[in-house]
Give the backbone structure.
Amino acid sequence: RIAGSSVRSGLRFFGLTVAQSALDQSGDGLPDIAVGSKGAVLLLRSRPIVSMVTRVTFTPPKIPTSISGCTDFQQITASVCFSMTKATNDIFKDLQAELSYTLKLDYVRQRTRAYFTANEKEKNFQSSVSLQEHCAQHPFFVQCSLEDALSPVDVQVIVYFEGVPIQTADGLVPQLASGSSKVTDHKLNFEIDCGEDKVCEDDVRVDINFSG
Ligand SMILES: [Ca+2]
């Protein structure tokens, strides 16, 4: 339901008539609806819809095993990439959006093992994206001599999407598809130490010695 007052102030009898078929009057490949009110007919244009995928890779890809014996900290760089693609078959070639996103490190734990700077386990960033992949590098640190160097460090990305008005289309604003996830989880695993030959085998032996 669209209220007349949300379209233009002073409209009377908004919705008096509604065009039966949705035709593309504006010629941008997206259907429009003509809605009549007293003394005026307004063309409601549908907005281009985009989907977005968030991808995170780490360098190094796993937390090195040397971390258990280190005296300082290990730096890891998260490469956060956003790919925006069109979900509607429109004529626009230069759709843009402003993203603000939050990176949360080891967020499932109360005592975090990763941080950006001292005690800072989450941070906000901004990025302008268009219809190609945009990546940004975010270095952070993993503590040394961890008590738990087995369960992965969970990194969460929360994205807030704001479409940039299209100048050539009277300020029509791209919209994010409802199916695009705004919150994504990524895992940073520990390298498993399998000895010098780098081959991991079960090496559990139990010696039971009955005596007496
Ligand atoms: Ca249209």
